[in-house]
Amino acid sequence: MKRIPKPVFFIVAILILLFAASSIFGVSYYDGDIEKTVFKGMDDIRWGIDIRGGVEATFKPADDVDATDAQLDSAKSIIETRMISSGITDYELYVDDGSDRIIVRFPWKEDEKNYDPVAAIDELAATANLTFRDEAGNVVMDGSSVKNARAMVNTEQGSANEYLVELNLTDEGADIFAEATKANVGKVIYIYMDETMISSPVVDEENVNGITGGKAQITGNFTSEEVNKLANQINGGALPFSLEVASYSSISPTLGQNSLTAMAYAGIIAIILIAIFMIAVYRIPGVVAVIALLGQVGLSVAAITRYFAPFDSFTMTLPGIAGIILSIGMGVDANIITAERIKDEFRTGKTLDGALEKGTKNSLTAIIDGNMTVIIVSIILLLVFGPSNILSWLFGASTTGTIYAFGYTLLMGVISNFVMGVFFSRVMLKSIAGFKCLRKEWLFGGARK
């Protein structure tokens, strides 16, 4: 077995424990009377409607504007974009074409104290700001230059059918966009809705002079759903009306804060019992498994709280909690499989180094097989019930955020298991085996001699 330096165990273990503590409890400090957050913890999680309640609001076009179905769909797309960009993944969103109404349900903010529905929905009802920006971040055109956008299929002779978005520009907008494309040939012009990027098309040299009759095209490897969504978002940024609230109400949670606290205590007790069992049965591999398990919990929480800046925050629902619990169970199972394989190698007469090498190697295939099937299912759940809404028309909008939460936390938990329970646990196990005082087979699951 290739030896790993003995100090590596302490370095990895300390880093995992510090990371787990910071991701679970968060890190913040006070600058005068202002609290500044360094790392978000569990207190910063945005809980779903089923746990903490939320807001139900009905929007309508302001000034009694008679909106078309396309305009209502555009407004719906803008509201959805804003919720997703705010980390709200537990929501319900409907359009009532007959009465020109948009109905939305979403949870309270994580730091909400006043529980004021009016304040909570103001941001969603504001008129969207559509901008086109170059690679330096400069705005080259805004939504006022776009009359409308529509999804199309290129059926010109000699070209493969492809989905695209056609922009119908104002006279001034056509001139502005023509200059912008000429200055950015081969570069990206980003399309932003508020501060959320919704598309990043590359300026094609062949189309620089193609802005004729006030029309331009956005092409790419789009699907039918993607071009329709992009067209709706662009139209939303150029809507001739703003939204106003027709009615609103607060939504009571189905679980409640007390039940959440009880669940947290139950989780802590469960982890303590698991730790006692693993250490008692598997000894040193059990100790390593407990450290890796804490790291897995920390990494799963970090994937929800936006601990890592590039990743968006996430709305935690009851199915999301179930996903974390299931992934923790799989993490424990992965460490048990490894520990049992090591014990099997001792029974065949292997030395300590041989048993660790062969046992960790033989357990890897079983762990990967079991986890890969879960990863595939999780990805399918994310695609079907996530923001892409591939099949939400079939299952209903109310299932979108709920089942998405389960798929997301399950996927993040399984990935955390590979990082902590498979990679780092093996590093720690092979490192700690280098200490002479611990090089006893029974401490690693072998029989006492």
Give a written overview of the molecule.
It is built from 12 helices and 15 strands. Helix 1 runs antiparallel to helix 12 (400-432), helix 9 runs antiparallel to helix 10 (352-385) and helix 9 packs parallel to helix 12. It is α+β, with helices and mostly antiparallel strands and 449 residues long. Strand 5 (92-96) and strand 6 (101-107) form a beta hairpin. It is elongated. It folds into 3 domains: 7-43 and 255-444, Multidrug efflux transporter AcrB transmembrane domain (Multidrug efflux transporter AcrB transmembrane fold); 54-127 and 243-251, Alpha-Beta Plaits (2-Layer Sandwich), CATH 3.30.70; 130-237, Gyrase A, domain 2 (2-Layer Sandwich). The chain has a 4-stranded antiparallel sheet, with helices on one face. A 4-stranded antiparallel sheet has the order 8-7-11-12. The chain starts with 6 loop residues before the first helix and ends in a 17-residue tail after the last helix.
> Which segments are poorly predicted (pLDDT under 50) over 5 or more consecutive residues?
206-210
The level-1 CATH class of the largest domain? Mainly Alpha
Radius of gyration (Å): 27 Å
**Can you tell me the CATH topology of the largest domain?**
Multidrug efflux transporter AcrB transmembrane fold
- The termini sit apart by 22 Å
Please outline what is shown here.
With 449 residues, this protein is an alpha+beta fold.
Offer a few descriptive terms.
Multidrug efflux transporter AcrB transmembrane fold, 449 residues, four-stranded antiparallel beta sheet, 3 domains, 15 strands, Gyrase A, domain 2, 12 helices, alpha+beta, Alpha-Beta Plaits
